[in-house]
Amino acid sequence: MSPAHQAFHRDLLQIMPAARIHTDPLSTLAYGTDASFYRLRPQIVARVDCESEVAAILALARRHRVALTFRAAGTSLSGQAVSDSVLVLLGDGFNHGQVLDDGARVRLGPAMIGSHANALLAPYGRKIGPDPASINSAKIGGIAANNSSGMCCGTRDNSYHTLAAMRLLLLDGAVLDTGDAASVAAFRQSHAALLAGLSGLAAELRADEALAERVRRKYRLKNTTGYGINALLDFDDPVDMLSHVLIGSEGTLGFISEITFHSVVEHPHKASALLLFDALEPCCRAVSALSAAADAHGVAAVELIDSRSLRALHGKPGLPDFLARPFGPDEACLLIEARAGSEAELERHCAEIEGLLAGFGPRLSSGFSREAAVCDSYWALRKGLFPAVGAVRPLGSTVVIEDVAFPIPLLADGVARLTALFDRHGYHEALLFGHALDGNLHFVFAPSFDNEREVARYDAFMQDVSALVAGEYDGSLKAEHGTGRNVAPFVRQEWGDAAWNIMRRIKALFDPDGLLNPGVIITDNDRLHLENLKPLPAADPVVDRCIECGFCEAACPSHGLTLSPRQRIVAWRRIQQLNRDGDAGEELAALRADFRYRAIDTCAATGMCATRCPVGINTGELMKRLQGPSPRPRAARFAARHIGAAAAAVRAGLALAHLFGPERLHRISLRLRRRHKVIPLIPAHLPRPAGRLPAAIGGDGEPVVLFLSCVNRALAVDAAGGNAAAPTLALLRRAGFNPRYPPGHDGLCCGQPFVSSNAAEALDISQNALNRALLMASEDGRHPVYLDNGPCAARILSAQRQGRLDARLRLFDAARFLEAFVAPRLAVTRKLEQLALHIPCSAAEMGAVKALTRLAGLCAERLTVPDIACCGFAGDKGFTVPELNAHSLRRLPPALPPGCCHGVSMSRTCQIGLSEHAGFEYRSIEALLDFCTTPKSGPL
User: Which residues form the FAD-binding PCMH-type domain (predicted)?
Assistant: First the structure.
């Protein structure tokens, strides 16, 4: 650490908790990456939670002449969220949102994820305008700072055009809230020179009529190259110029601490179609026609997919039959989405679009589909093009995704010329696709940066792309991904000296010493795009395809506590590289010292990261393997053969704990854990032992095999010691079923405990016994099998897919069985006023989310579903690593509406942690339905 950074660090410790300041090798390595192909290792990482901390850090930066870079989610693709100085992360204090004017506006903190903002607006039929592909991970601060757009956003609904107000901090510590008249008035007095400087630049730009017209023309395209100097033309008030030039400034001019957007309509009726053209030229002419008629015909999005991309999609599930074949070199496809406010209007729009396109001779068309599943499959194919390259790239290479924009009339020629550049420079794996309605094209390729020749090849390619797009076509080198480091050396080439000098002077007005995100957007280093290129060395086949995009992080319960899946992979790659190099120095020792707890022990290993990963990587698989084999395989084998005795022992232990007092045990275990992390934490809401299982034999209904998980056989569902089987049996019988237990049910287990402990032999024992019992009870698969606990159901279904359980078994998780066969036979006779639903990881893994949500919705006047992808209880980690559960559920209480005192889930262990942190009991979906329903009248 440099002397200046040491002084900065000492002063920072006086104003922020040390727990939110990181200088250790593992943290600085982990945060030294974003979604781009650059890596810079910060000397200090600080997580800020409020404006006063940001202001203090800005003051320290000025005092010590230390550079700062602000980061939201780190999903930026152009290197604008990495630093070799001080990296400032947005903490929970900036994660907030408020709907205004019945949904017409929304006020958001910069740490809120974009999709969460849309969830706030959904009840009003509205959404935010920007819709980047990363919206489920990207945060509002990054979306605004990059002026991100997306598939449907276009140039009209981006952050720039939907900005209603902004609260910001400048380098000198000044706070401006453009939605507060008093703040604006005070700022006009205190910063008259800054505002005068902006007005002067605006006057200078307007006086140059040719340049002014060029600026207007270029911003009719998507354009995020350089600063948004269109703000100098679009507004007369320098305060408006200031707030709008902050949009897309990538943290180089100030810090956005809050933003208010005008929302846009989220049309309820949508349809999508795929059309194949024999040649690119008529395909692009069709795009021009669609662009001209977009508003009249409800055209929301048009995606162009070139022939190389079509070949990359070959064999993917969801592909229409007419695309499941070889393609010629000039064929192209359009994916079109139409939207409308009513079904009749949508029908009319679809007919109009089909009539318009008929004149351009598409060879084949899927026709417009209104089925959500079909439309989702089409768009999943389009979104899968980026990972299609990442999944097959050579080991050690990286993935570059760039985006440019051509004037729409020149789109066909631009596509052909770009394709020729791929071939000229030997990037034959490159795919080209994009938001054709705006002339915006993405291209993805996999260069290797492991030697100077490859770096020189990449540089030559970028020089040619710049000359083509910016020089010949006067297009945008960066349409929506932000300038970053990759295009900063080319900003002057795209804009010319006059516009470039205006941009330089804007930077000087706000940041005369170049302390805010130096090198990004404005640079004199014409080789910046070739420096600090990120290595992606081999680490393990499970994670080698990772491109470090960060999409996984929003679903990870340990992100922000220890490490995220992306950071675990970054660290393991570095450790493996150091091992291969024979470097046993201080860095390797430091990384290994922290890796066990921060990477392995605190990984929930539930696989939620894989559900968000573009290439399906389950980082938990690697962490479980690194955990090593079970240290007590003999004990595990004994437990597998004596599950009934183990469950009885648990019940006895729970009974003893309740005699002693759970709250007292909680306090004692909490004190002991502060000194010895191996001591498990006893929850204050420790469940009571379950009572004796009720009988499940008898009745005249349809047979169904009821497999009760061992956790539900051991843990009571209420303070009276009730058993989980009671509401389940009552519900099934009420619906006309005759439930039966498998033989020896008290000694059966799904095997999940042995998977978690890597006890392979014990797993085989338990699953073989389960397979025999279920086959016998179901009469070789004749009768369905009801699996009552989500994680256990997921484990059993996974075992069947792997061939460990007989394929004849008809296995159902609780949610899907209840929705398909039980709920239709029951009448909901009472509803809870408020109900909170937790969707466990297992429900997402099994595809049971919609079924579970619909069932819960039947029983509540108002259903709240907090966006918590994984609660972090993760089997027994809620006891052994309770900080993981607490960290993941820190956002639960604020997400619950006032007066909510009922919760539901389909995982018994999740219910323990949820009850602990919500302050009220979470119960099973069976208990909820048992409480709310009666049999329907008439024959079943």
Answer: 38-266
Burial of 324 (0-12, 13-18, 19+ CB in 10 A): exposed
Question: Mean pLDDT across the stretch 406-432?
Answer: 92
What pLDDT is stored for residue 697 in this prediction?
A: 63
In whole angstroms, give the CA distance from residue 282 to residue 441: 17
3.40.462.40, 3.30.1330.30, 3.30.2290.10, 1.25.40.10: CATH of 269-476: 3.40.462.40
| Residue 939 pLDDT > 50 | no
Please determine, for residue 719, whether its predicted confidence score (pLDDT) is greater than 80: no
Q: What is the largest CA-CA distance in the chain?
A: 91
Pairwise CA distance, residues 118 & 414, whole Å? 34
Question: Residue 861: how many CB atoms within 10 A of its CB?
Answer: 10
Half-sphere exposure for 853 (CA within 13 Å, toward CB): 11
1-258+482-535: in CATH 3.40.50.1820: no
**CA-CA distance, 304 to 445, in Å (whole number)?**
17
Q: List 340's β-bridge partners, or say none.
A: 269
Crossing angle of helices 633-641 and 643-660, in 10° steps, is 100
Q: What is the DSSP string of 44-82?
A: EEEEE-SHHHHHHHHHHHHHHT--EEEESS---SSSTT-
Rounded to whole angstroms, how far apart are CA atoms 486 and 477? 10
Cα gap 632→616, rounded to integer Å: 32
pLDDT of amino acid 93: 96
**Relative orientation angle of helices 491-510 and 192-207, to the nearest 10 degrees:** 150
Measuring CA to CA, which residue among 266, 350, 274 is closest to residue 305?
274
- Better-predicted residue by pLDDT, 924 or 151: 924
Q: Which tokens go with 282?
A: 């008529």
Residues 302-313 pLDDT 10s: 999 998 888 888
For position 937, what pLDDT does the model report?
65
CA atoms of 79 and 74, how far apart (whole Å): 9
pLDDT above 70 for 940:
no
- Per-residue tokens: 663: 């709250």
Tokens at 933, concatenated? 């329903």
User: Phi and psi for 440 in degrees, rounded to 5?
Assistant: -95, 120
pLDDT classification of 696: cutoffs 50, 70, 90:
low
pLDDT value, residue 821:
96
What is the C-alpha separation between 300 and 154, in angstroms, rounded? 9
Do 611 and 621 form a contact (C-beta atoms < 8 A)? no
Residue 478 above 70 pLDDT?
yes
Residue 304 corresponds to which amino acid? L
Dihedrals phi, psi of 907, to nearest 5 degrees: -135, 120
SS (HEC) of 799-838: HHHCCCCCCCCCEEEHHHHHHHHHHHHEEECCCEEEEEEC
3-state class (DSSP) for residue 441: strand
Tokens representing 517 are 């995100």
pLDDT at 612 over 80: yes
pTM above 0.85, yes or no: yes
For residues 610-622, one letter each, b for 16 or more C-beta atoms within 10 angstroms of the residue's C-beta and e for the rest, the string is bbbbbbebbbbbb
Cβ atoms of 609 and 556 within 8 Å: the answer is yes
Q: Who contacts 790 (Cβ-Cβ below 8 Å, separation ≥6)?
A: 813, 814, 815, 840, 842, 843, 846, 848, 905, 906, 907, 910
Exposed, middle or buried: residue 451 (CB in 10 Å: 0-12, 13-18, 19+)? Answer: exposed
C-alpha–C-alpha distance, residues 107 and 188, integer Å: 23
Summarize pLDDT for 118-132 with one digit per residue, the tens.
999 999 999 999 999
CA separation for the pair 237, 845 (Å, rounded): 52
Cα torsion angle, 620, 625, 630, 631, sign: negative
Q: What is the radius of gyration, based on Cα positions, of the chain?
A: 29
